[in-house]
Design brief:
Elements lengths: L2 H4 L16 H17 L10 H7 L1 H11 L5 H7 L6 H29 L1 H21 L3 H29 L5 H22 L9 H19 L7 H6 L3 H12 L1 H14 L10 H5 L4 H16 L2 H14 L4 H26 L1 H22 L7 H23 L2 H9 L5 H53 L8 H8 L4
Length: 490
């Protein structure tokens, strides 16, 4: 049952005293786990934890909304604030969010461990409220940039905390489904920004409304988090065992709470309360597992997903499809893939979805490269390949490469390093996202679409191989079971 973990278990060992542990330790732990699972066949009610998860995904909705909120109104913003025609200023309005996001992401692990997951959500929403209000009320470029920078810090803080929280409060048998809610909420945020931005060309100053609207879900997140459960894992790490058990009762039910705490005690040791240093993650005993997480996020971005979003309007326009229709098509493909992912995550498993998602993305990029090449002489066929390949790419991305890394990594990281390791890994995401956005158009101009799409396809195939060799399956296992299997005990 846990055989596929045994090959990689050595890379997760935490303490020098375990250096001499052999694979028999993992086999013994696996047998014990199997026995436990045989005894514990009933699942807690998913209805208890669902409201808490839905509140948490408001942060993901805001993430998607703020990524897309300036796309349609950017021209109107530049005219009203007096920088129309200044491409550098327009680029800064879009990209300064990424700088703020990197700052927020780097701090997210320390904030989540320092003040708890609930307060981290509230701290994530506050700069979004302040920044969006500044952007909506400003009359100059400087105010817009400062507002977008504030919003960016919230954007960077939100995703890692959402992944942590959803992973830690969800019952094992629906954790994959709940994890897919994050991607769905992000898609809905992007589509919401598109919908709100529709009147911007017809109504003067409507772009200000687009920013003001975003303060409503952010305020709801701040208030609703007062009524949500704190992560029992975080409470237990703080030595607040009674509170952890009380929160487990809220999330899983009274009958499951004591069992959950007892399972938690098997992997939460006294040394887990020690401070985690950054050096421990980037070159210490946890380097390999953090490397796997960082590589997954790097390959996710190097696959070309953001480049596809940037270039989609141009491809659709060449096929005679208006830009707003193109955005709707991309949004629907993204949402459809996310919904299918939600249905399959706890049935097929994380590794299967991730593997076939990257494989499908590679095929899609090959189709787009073929459509852009001289091999296809028929213009209609070339457009079908380009448009079809693009929609297929977005759909297959949403099936696995989009939602899985944010769910899988909190599952496989030991509890002691979980929050800070997520911060490091998602920082890689933001850095590469920034450079893709910065260099894409220039690379497209220098290399041409055929070669550039071929490079993206190559990265997708590298991801397929990487997933096959390094990713472990966590479907249906509690976080305690996963950590016991990956970390042989004394």
């Amino acid at each position: 049952m846990w055989g596929h973990y045994r090959e990689t278990s050595s890379m997760y060992k935490r303490t020098p005293s375990r250096d001499n542990s052999n694979m028999d330790d993992v086999e013994e732990n696996s047998d014990l786990l199997d026995n436990c699972l045989d005894k514990e066949t009933s699942n807690p009610s998913w209805k208890l934890s669902l409201p808490h998860v839905l509140v948490a995904t408001i942060s993901s909705f805001l993430f998607g909304y703020h990524l897309g909120v300036v796309n349609e109104p950017l021209e109107s913003i530049s005219v009203d604030l007096g920088f129309s025609g200044n491409t550098l200023a327009e680029g800064l309005v879009v990209s300064i969010c990424l700088g703020g996001a990197l700052i927020g992401c780097l701090l997210s692990g320390w904030i989540a461990d320092g003040v708890g997951r609930r307060r981290a959500f509230q701290l994530c929403a506050l700069p979004m409220i302040i920044g969006a209000s500044m952007s909506a009320a400003t009359n100059n470029l400087f105010g817009m940039l400062v507002g977008r920078l504030f919003v960016g810090t919230g954007l960077g803080l939100g995703p890692p905390v959402a992944s942590l929280y959803v992973t830690e409060v969800s019952p094992a048998f629906v954790r994959g489904t709940y994890g897919a809610f994050i991607q769905i909420a992000t898609c809905l945020g992007l589509m919401g920004a598109l919908f709100i931005g529709i009147p911007v060309k017809d109504i003067s100053g409507w772009w200000r409304v687009c920013f003001w609207v975003s303060t409503i879900p952010a305020a709801i997140l701040v208030l609703a988090m007062f009524f949500c459960a704190e992560s029992p894992h975080w409470l237990y790490k703080q030595g607040r065992t009674a509170e952890a058990e009380a929160e487990f009762e809220r999330l899983l039910g009274v009958s499951e709470a004591k069992f959950a705490v007892s399972e938690l005690s098997k992997v939460e040791r006294g040394d887990d309360t020690d401070a985690v240093k950054l050096s421990e993650l980037v070159r210490g005993r946890h380097f390999k597992v953090v490397f796997i997480g960082s590589t997954l996020f790097a390959l996710q971005q190097l696959s070309g997903i953001n480049a596809v979003f940037y270039f989609s309007s141009t491809v659709f326009k060449s096929a005679g499809v208006p830009s707003d229709v193109a955005n709707v098509c991309i949004g629907v493909a993204n949402l459809a893939g996310s919904i299918v992912s939600m249905i399959l995550m706890d049935k097929l498993g994380r590794k299967v979805l991730l593997f076939w998602s990257f494989f499908g993305m590679a095929i899609s990029m090959i189709l787009q490269a073929t459509g852009a090449s001289s091999l296809v002489s028929n213009l209609g066929a070339a457009l079908y390949l380009s448009v079809g390949g693009m929609l297929m790419f977005v759909l297959t991305f949403a099936l696995g490469a989009g939602p899985v890394p944010g769910l899988l990594l909190p599952e496989i990281f030991p509890s002691r390093i979980r929050a800070k390791a997520m911060a490091v890994c998602m920082s890689v995401h933001w850095v590469i996202n920034f450079f893709i956005g910065l260099l894409f158009l220039r690379l497209l101009e220098k290399l041409g679409p055929q070669l550039l799409y071929s490079i993206f396809a190559t990265f997708c195939m590298m991801a397929v191989i990487f997933v096959k060799r390094n990713v472990v399956e966590t479907k249906g296992k509690s976080l305690h079971e996963i950590e016991i299997a990956l970390l042989p005990q004394d």
